[in-house]
Amino acid sequence: MPSFIPTEHPHRRYNPLNDSWVLVSPRRTKRPWQGQVEATPPDSRPPYDPRCYLCPGNRRAGNAQNPPYGSTFVFTNDFAALQPDVPTDSPPPVAGDVTGLLKLQPEGGTCRVICFSPRHNLTLPEMSAGALRRVVDVWAAQYAELGARAGINYVQIFQNQGAMMGASNPHPHGQIWATRTIPDEPAAEDRTQREYFARHGRSLLGDYLRLEVNSGERLVVQNEHFAAVVPFWAVWPFETLVISRRHVPAIDQFSSAERDGLADILKRLTTRYDNLFNVSFPYSMGFHQQPTDGAAHPHWHFHAHFFPPLLRSATVRKFMVGFEMLGMPQRDLTAEQAAQRLRDVPATHYKSQ
Ligand code: H2U
Ligand code: ZN
What we know:
Layout: E1 11-15, E2 20-24, E3 73-76, E4 109-115, H1 129-147, E5 154-161, E6 173-179, H2 184-200, H3 204-215, E7 219-222, E8 226-229, E9 240-244, H4 256-277, E10 283-288, E11 303-307, H5 322-326, E12 330-331, H6 335-344
Parallel strand pairs: 2-12
Antiparallel strand pairs: 1-2, 3-4, 4-6, 5-6, 5-10, 7-8, 8-9, 9-11, 10-11
Residues 49, 52, 54-55, 120, 171 line the site of zinc ion.
């Protein structure tokens, strides 16, 4: 089927998952750049760093001591953004506000940190399939445990990879923030998926995945259980969406084979990311799963978002400023071009080539 997607002309694309638009300006990557250049952090980390807060056996910043863990380790964030014991009663109106414009609600929850590996110098693509599978099992167990708690209605699992994305420590780790209210992004996706399911009787992302697998234009990697695409509506230059082939609402409902499949697709995708500029590719990633509010969510389809900031090279990132902050998101290369770039790099990690 011929593609009628413009490769030269500015156009807008619609994101049906969060009901927003992105401006695509394919020719803008040709503009000269004399602006900020990021430092490429040297990657000469030892397998164990006695000063690292997350290495096995070390003391953390809050003075707790990590056990001598051998695979993964989960602990409550010593500087948690959410606390479980926040009063839930509605507070009185903000003093002086007769308009109702100033709204304030208490928010309860909990924050955890997950060390993916005892090895200080690894990243996800450098971990073995078996070790990654153990991380998947920890994510599933954490989602199930936190989600079952009274007062936890949403569980956000995520990872900030790299200093450029705000990771505070190079030890391989991710976070979980579990909240009483459903945050805005998953709340928007809950609405769009519910409406699509009500109208068509099928999952929005299931239909989208079928379309992407048939076209192949935006496909990056796939296996028996998952596919990773640069979504048609991607905002970040090399943004990807990992979608399960089976319409499953949450990670704890995957079979053992599907969990292996998730570990495999994450390894293959992050390997390609690192191979793009031969650096450990920075990103924020996370899973979007059904809220744990006890309501039925038959429309929810498990997926992971990867939002990497790099644009032209290891040192030049995309800035979401000016028009993006005041108008709408804008991107410089098309989703199809980004997917092609990610397909063109080797499937084996550059450090092991
Ligand atoms: P980020 O690298 O994505 O910031 O995650 C690390 C988290 O680890 C961060 O939220 C926590 C920080 O609060 N942390 C501890 O809980 N204890 C420590 O000793 C160091 C860091
Ligand atoms: Zn460490």
